[in-house]
TrEMBL record:
<dbReference type="InterPro" id="IPR000182">
    <property type="entry name" value="GNAT_dom"/>
</dbReference>
<keyword id="KW-0808">Transferase</keyword>
<dbReference type="Pfam" id="PF00583">
    <property type="entry name" value="Acetyltransf_1"/>
</dbReference>
<dbReference type="GO" id="GO:0016747">
    <property type="term" value="F:acyltransferase activity, transferring groups other than amino-acyl groups"/>
</dbReference>
<feature type="domain" description="N-acetyltransferase">
    <location>
        <begin position="4"/>
        <end position="177"/>
    </location>
</feature>
<dbReference type="InterPro" id="IPR016181">
    <property type="entry name" value="Acyl_CoA_acyltransferase"/>
</dbReference>
<protein>
    <submittedName>
        <fullName>GNAT family N-acetyltransferase</fullName>
    </submittedName>
</protein>
């Protein structure tokens, strides 16, 4: 197993995280076949940077990030916060009071080594320790959706062709205590 440290980000990590988001989001867009959607790609990167800044400015109260670090290199991220502006209208506000787990990114060189599972376990443990009973997770990326379906089953919300013909969006509502055992 890789020697991975899971920890909170600091201001010293901002520049490396900006580069990390750019690298991983760009890689994801190209693997999804949407690399030509430059404006959406830039919006996604900017959103993640804004979430990070919210975390650092609020000391984890608005957004709460964890990062995976190997030998001083950031190789993964995860965060939770209020359900996004995408989730609320798509669920008729059914999840407006539920935390969303997101920004589950792993450096392409380190994918399929269990880093995402370490991050997920760490964030679910944090939620459980805070007394949070449920959370949600969403994805518009086909490759990620396959992973989440294997892990969490059929999504609670399936938005057919949300991103265009054959490109769906999926949302799972999850019970935290079932995720941390």
């Amino acid at each position: 197993m890789l020697n991975i440290e899971i920890r909170r980000p600091t201001n010293d990590d901002i520049e490396q995280l900006k580069q990390f988001f750019r690298s991983v989001v760009t890689d994801t867009f190209y693997k999804e076949g949407i690399g030509n959607m430059v404006e959406d790609l830039e919006d996604e990167i900017e959103c993640k940077i804004n979430y990070l800044i919210d975390d650092l400015q609020s000391s984890g109260e608005t957004r709460y990030f964890l990062i995976a670090v190997k030998e001083e290199r950031i190789v993964g991220t995860i965060e939770y916060g209020a359900a996004s502006e995408l989730i609320n209208p798509c669920t008729n506000n059914a999840l407006k009071d539920v935390y969303e787990v997101g920004t589950v990114f792993v450096d392409p060189e380190y994918q399929r080594n269990g880093i995402a599972n370490l991050l997920l376990h760490s964030i679910y443990t944090r939620l459980k320790n805070k007394g949070i009973k449920e959370c949600c997770l969403d994805s518009g990326y086909g490759r990620s959706q396959k992973i989440w379906q294997q892990k969490y089953g059929t999504p609670d919300y399936f938005l057919k062709n949300y991103w265009g013909e054959g490109n769906h969006h999926m949302i799972w509502r999850l019970k935290v205590e079932e995720l941390v055992r």
